Amino acid sequence: MKPHLHFTADHDDAVARTKAITAGGLAIFAVESAGGRLGACNRHGCPEVFVDTSRNGRRAYCSARCGNYEAVRRHRSAV
Protein backbone atom coordinates (compact mmCIF):
# COMPACT_ATOMS: atom_id res chain seq x y z
CA MET A 1 0.00 0.00 0.00
CA LYS A 2 1.43 3.37 -1.07
CA PRO A 3 1.40 6.29 1.37
CA HIS A 4 -1.23 8.87 0.54
CA LEU A 5 -2.67 12.07 1.91
CA HIS A 6 -6.26 12.88 2.84
CA PHE A 7 -7.13 16.54 2.29
CA THR A 8 -10.56 16.24 3.92
CA ALA A 9 -12.77 13.70 5.64
CA ASP A 10 -14.81 11.37 3.44
CA HIS A 11 -18.07 12.53 5.03
CA ASP A 12 -17.53 16.27 4.27
CA ASP A 13 -19.86 17.95 1.79
CA ALA A 14 -18.94 18.48 -1.86
CA VAL A 15 -17.94 22.13 -1.39
CA ALA A 16 -15.54 21.37 1.47
CA ARG A 17 -14.02 18.47 -0.45
CA THR A 18 -13.58 20.59 -3.60
CA LYS A 19 -11.90 23.39 -1.63
CA ALA A 20 -9.58 20.96 0.12
CA ILE A 21 -8.60 19.12 -3.06
CA THR A 22 -8.00 22.42 -4.88
CA ALA A 23 -5.80 23.71 -2.04
CA GLY A 24 -3.89 20.44 -1.99
CA GLY A 25 -3.39 20.55 -5.74
CA LEU A 26 -2.10 24.10 -5.54
CA ALA A 27 0.34 23.11 -2.80
CA ILE A 28 1.64 20.20 -4.89
CA PHE A 29 1.94 22.48 -7.93
CA ALA A 30 3.89 25.07 -5.94
CA VAL A 31 6.31 22.52 -4.55
CA GLU A 32 6.86 20.27 -7.56
CA SER A 33 6.67 22.44 -10.66
CA ALA A 34 6.56 26.19 -10.95
CA GLY A 35 6.57 27.39 -7.37
CA GLY A 36 9.05 30.13 -8.24
CA ARG A 37 6.63 31.43 -10.85
CA LEU A 38 3.84 32.19 -8.40
CA GLY A 39 3.29 35.87 -7.72
CA ALA A 40 1.03 38.31 -5.93
CA CYS A 41 -0.51 41.26 -7.75
CA ASN A 42 1.35 44.56 -7.17
CA ARG A 43 -1.81 46.68 -7.37
CA HIS A 44 -2.58 48.13 -3.95
CA GLY A 45 -5.57 46.33 -2.48
CA CYS A 46 -5.67 43.46 -4.99
CA PRO A 47 -5.55 40.11 -3.19
CA GLU A 48 -5.06 37.99 -6.33
CA VAL A 49 -2.20 35.59 -6.96
CA PHE A 50 -1.14 34.27 -10.35
CA VAL A 51 1.23 31.96 -12.18
CA ASP A 52 3.79 34.02 -14.08
CA THR A 53 3.90 32.66 -17.63
CA SER A 54 5.90 35.55 -19.08
CA ARG A 55 9.20 34.78 -20.77
CA ASN A 56 11.34 36.82 -18.40
CA GLY A 57 9.41 35.93 -15.23
CA ARG A 58 8.79 39.54 -14.23
CA ARG A 59 5.01 39.75 -14.34
CA ALA A 60 3.75 42.23 -11.75
CA TYR A 61 -0.05 42.22 -12.02
CA CYS A 62 -2.69 39.51 -12.04
CA SER A 63 -4.41 41.01 -15.09
CA ALA A 64 -4.11 43.78 -17.66
CA ARG A 65 -6.89 45.57 -15.79
CA CYS A 66 -4.78 45.84 -12.62
CA GLY A 67 -1.74 46.93 -14.64
CA ASN A 68 -3.76 49.63 -16.39
CA TYR A 69 -5.24 50.78 -13.08
CA GLU A 70 -1.76 51.30 -11.64
CA ALA A 71 -0.49 53.03 -14.79
CA VAL A 72 -3.39 55.50 -14.66
CA ARG A 73 -2.84 56.04 -10.93
CA ARG A 74 0.87 56.79 -11.48
CA HIS A 75 0.06 59.13 -14.37
CA ARG A 76 -2.52 61.07 -12.36
CA SER A 77 -0.20 61.42 -9.38
CA ALA A 78 2.54 62.83 -11.64
CA VAL A 79 0.27 65.50 -13.12
UniProtKB/TrEMBL annotation:
Residues 37-77 form the Zinc finger CGNR domain. InterPro entries: ABATE (IPR010852), ABATE_dom_sf (IPR023286), Znf_CGNR (IPR021005). PANTHER family: BLL6575 PROTEIN. This is CGNR zinc finger domain-containing protein.
